[in-house]
Amino acid sequence: QMKDGVVVLNFARDLLVDDDAMAEALKSGKVARYVTDFPNPKSVNMKGAIAIPHLGASTEESEDNCARMAVKEIMDYLENGTIKNSVNFPNCDMGVCRVASRVAVFHENIPNMIGQITGILASAGMNISDMTNKSRDKYAYTLLDLETKVDEVTIEKLAAIKGVCRVRVVK
After folding, report:
1. For a surface tag, which of 15, 19, 89, 101 has the fewest beta carbons within 10 Å of its beta carbon?
2. What DSSP line would sit under 119-142, residue for residue?
3. Which of helix, strand or coil describes residue 64?
4. Helix (H, G, I), strand (E, B) or coil at 106
C-alpha cells in the first residue's frame, strides 16, 4: 500500500523483515533502498541494501557492558590517573604506578607549563622517573611518577602556577 521507491530503515532486528520479500521489493523498485544495522548473509548481498554496523547502544547487554566499562575507567582514573574515552580530556595512560608517588596536573595548554612543573619538583629534590603530557585544545593533562613521596608544600606550589587548574596526588 506504500508508494513506489520508498526507503525502508530497519534498526530493530533482522528477523522483523522477510528477506525474500525485501529482495523482491528491491528488485521491482517498490523499495528503492533497504538500510539495516542487522545485516545477514541474504541482506548483505541484496542490490539496493545498505548494511551498516549495529552499535547496540540500547540493549540490556550493551548497557551492562557500558556500565562495567565506565566503572573500570573511573577506577583506573582514581587508582592510576588514567583517562580513556573522555569527551573533554585527552586519553592518557601510564599504567600502574610502580614508584613512590604519582601526581596528576590538569592545566592550560600554554608554553613553559611543563618547565614550571618540573622546575618545582627539581627544586624540592624530587626525581621524575616517568612522565607524560597529553593535550586537547586549550587544556593539557600531565602525569608524573616520582621516586619519593610528594609533600603538601610541593603540591601547593604546583597548584599556585598560573594556568594550573587542579593538582591531584594519585599515589
Report:
1. 15
2. HHHHHTTPPEEEEEEEEETTEEEE
3. helix
4. strand
Cα(94)–Cα(83) distance, rounded to whole angstroms?
10
d(Cα 19, Cα 24) in Å, to the nearest integer?
9
Q: List pLDDT tens digits, range 32-68.
A: 999 988 888 888 889 999 988 777 667 788 888 888 9
What DSSP element (H or E) covers 153?
helix 152-159
Q: Are 141 and 130 in contact (CB under 8 A)?
A: no
Q: 55-59, 92-96, 122-126, 155-159: lowest mean pLDDT where?
A: 55-59
Q: Decide: 158 and 105 in contact? Cβ < 8 Å.
A: yes
pTM value?
0.67
For β-strands 101-108 and 139-146, DSSP reports them as antiparallel
Residue with cell 621516586: 147
